[in-house]
Amino acid sequence: xxxxxxxxxxxxxxxxxxxxxxxxxxxxxxxxxxxxxxxxxxxxxxxxxxxxxxxxxxxxxxxxxxxxxxxxxxxxxxxxxxxxxxxxxxxxxxxxxxxxxxxxxxxxxxxxxxxxxxxxxxxxxxxxxxxxxxxxxxxxxxxxxxxxxxxxxxxxxxxxxxxxxxxxxxxxxxxxxxxxxxxxxxxxxxxxxxxxxxxxxxxxxxxxxxxxxxxxxxxxxxxxxxxxxxxxxxxxxxxxxxxxxxxxxxxxxxxxxxxxxxxxxxxxxxxxxxxxxxxxxxxx
Length: 284
Prior knowledge:
42% of the residues lie in helices and 21% in strands. It is built from 10 helices and 9 strands. The strands form 2 sheets. It has a 5-stranded antiparallel beta sheet with strand order 1-8-3-6-9, covered by helices on one side. It is globular and about 60 Å long.
């Protein structure tokens, strides 16, 4: 039986799943403080490292202890009144949306009508503490590579928080094809781990403990393309971000992504993106 493509999880269609981080912070309360009631315009994750965090979310009292977390969503009303000793970590982000998409069609991470207590999760310290430790080591961002490391860690925190939430709290799109979504996440992580070098289809199949033929068919069903082209597309998308958002030279980007040399990188980039990397660099 011929399986039909699952276009919802085409890597090219997953932009809404890519969080754009506006800030990450580490807060220590040394005296009793109150933050007045305000409405969130973006998502915020709060994870308690020590003490008790007290707040109201949509007029519902919230009390978080050590290694508990809370995810706030756009539209939530939030106020806190916390007393020392208290330490917590947090990050704020929004989801990338296509230009011109109406608010009714915008994707959300969570079900719209979940209770506030469903937005609370257990933050396993063995998972989250090392991630926040690495994040602290990367600030302030004093080099393009430190920025990339920090962004990778923030994304890992984002996915671990979603994994810690009750599955029934997640949006229908996240829940409907969870096995396929999990495979795309694992494949994306595999790409990330090998972004500096080469990764063959056989090596990808071995990582997923299946035959090359079976893996290639699954990859085409999920992402409408071959494993090699998916990996290349992943690299070229990263190349565009590096050219636009960092001070890296074209040669440095080529070396970073494991291309043979700058000329080879420029030819491949131009063939697939439709413009040379110099045009992206000049525009930024």
